[in-house]
Amino acid sequence: MSISFELGLVIVAAIFLLCIIFSKISDRFGIPILILFIGVGMLAGSEGIGGIYFDDPKLTQYIGIAALSVILFSGGLDTRWSQVKSVLVEGISLSIAGVFITTLAFGAIGYFLTDLTFLESLLIGAITSSTDAAAVFSILRSKGINLKQRLASLLELESGSNDPVAVLLTIIVLGFITQTAEGAGVTILGFFLQIGVGLFVGWLISQAVLFLVNHINFGYEGLYNIFLFTVVFLAYGSAALLRGSGFLAVYVLGLMLAKSDFIHKRSALRFFDSAAWFSQIVLFLTLGLLVFPSRLVPVVPLGIGLAIILMFLARPIAVFLTLLPFKYSLREKVFISWVGLRGAVPIVLATYPLVAGIENSGMVFNIVFFVVLLSVLLQGTTLPLIAKLLKVTDPAYQASQYPIEITAGGLIPSELKEIKLNPDSPSIGKAIYQLGLPPGFLIVLIARQDAFIQPLGSTILETGDALLALTEKDALEVAKSILNETPSLSE
Q1: 3-class DSSP state of 41
Q2: Is 70 part of any domain?
Q3: pLDDT per position as a tens digit, 303-317
Q4: Angle of helix 57-77 versus helix 221-241 axis, rounded to 10
Q5: How many Å apart are CA 397 and CA 368, to the nearest integer?
Q6: Are 284 and 228 in the same domain?
Q7: What is the CATH number of the domain that holds 482?
Q8: Burial grade of 58 (CB within 10 A; 0-12, 13-18, 19 or more)
Q9: CATH of the domain at 376
Q10: Which of 61, 96, 126, 307 is deepest in the core (most CB within 10 A)?
Q11: What angle do CA 325, 330, 333 make, to 5 degrees?
């Protein structure tokens, strides 16, 4: 049945509106948003009420690559470098060694406990080896739960950097299945070459972007965001053409920009937050359309078994072995193991076997899809409870939502920072004028319980106050030593 262009627009708009409305349901009831978006896609598909027939793995893969590039860049750009750098070593270890160990453990256990061949089991392990911290934090935020800062930073860094590793490992295993891999030595060399090229391209383009953005006046604020949006795909394409990891390049590009100051940075953060949400909706809807629910039924028993292997064996083995040299408590390791939610990346990677045309590729895709759904449903819905039971939460790390915002430009050397006072801060009970705060540090608003206070010099600071200050970098460090604050999520 053919439809008019206008009717097509109405249908697409209605589907997007439905996804946006469902996001509110996710926040209220703690249902993982991935499930809701994919569910809308399945309802709109050929076996749903929408009746839209879509069966194009290649197009899905292209859409997935474009969407994931934006999502990864946005994640890198939103990274709080001052906090992530304290867990850099263990985060990178989890993203590389963790992915390898998860894949090998899953492959070996799956091979011995199921009828899959070793390479098929290894392929599913590689595809499902990456984690999705965005899903984790959206669930925790919806319940008002904040993790201890070191734990949150570790999960954020791991999930952002392990996607490229999972992609490379999936391609390597596919190479052995299709007999296009040239041997273990060459494959391992190619793996590290892809990582090296991805790192270099991401860093190089970030330096060029910082120079151009800070030295060329585009005239309009919106053009800066379009410029960065274009550069994301430039980074991915350049790295891929040089046989490097495009996903790693865009993530490194975001990280490098996150740790640097540039004109209209806050505007870019807002823009890419919206772009990442749009990309997620498009990606999940496409994946939902690609799935035929009737084809999932035959893989349910095997999918349940493999999901159990992944959640209760492979992921914990990888976490405990990788974090062995680091000082993490048993409760923290258990939580990190349980937080290994799978997101859109494994489902996108599951299209690679379909495009390669390997035997049983349809079965692999359906198994991965089912494993991801089960992981999100079981792990996602129990996250708040597990976090509380394991006592890995920290109510001190509650970011305040302020009713003002300042966008820094080239003529404004200051930026907005939030400082939360420790319960034993010596500034509590004192007036602001008594603190001896440095020039270049101006408190513009105080968040106190559920209210905001416009400060005066005579304002007395109280326990639990969060101070929003317009500050220069040097003045910030001096003010921190005076106020003795609790580290904030906004830094």
Answers
A1: helix
A2: yes
A3: 999 999 999 999 999
A4: 120
A5: 35
A6: yes
A7: 3.30.70.1450
A8: exposed
A9: 1.20.1530.20
A10: 126
A11: 70
Measuring CA to CA, which residue among 193, 1, 117 is closest to residue 363? 117
Ramachandran category for residue 429: left, alpha or beta (phi over 0 → left; psi -120 to 50 → alpha): left
Taking the model in full, what pTM does it have? Answer: 0.80
**pLDDT single digits (tens) 83-134:** 788 888 998 999 999 999 999 999 999 999 888 899 999 999 999 998 876 6
Q: Which amino acid is at 31?
A: I
Gap between the Cα atoms of 480 and 435, Å rounded: 11
CA distance 473 to 478: 9
| Selection from 105, 113, 151 nearest residue 393 by Cα | 151
Tracing tokens 């709080």 back to the chain, one arrives at 80
State pLDDT tens for residues 173-199: 988 888 765 555 556 777 788 889 999
Q: How far apart are CA 309 and CA 485, in angstroms?
A: 43
Q: Which DSSP symbol is given to 16? A: H
> What token pair was written down for 44?
């709109």
Q: Backbone phi, then psi, for 298, in 5-degree steps?
A: -65, -25
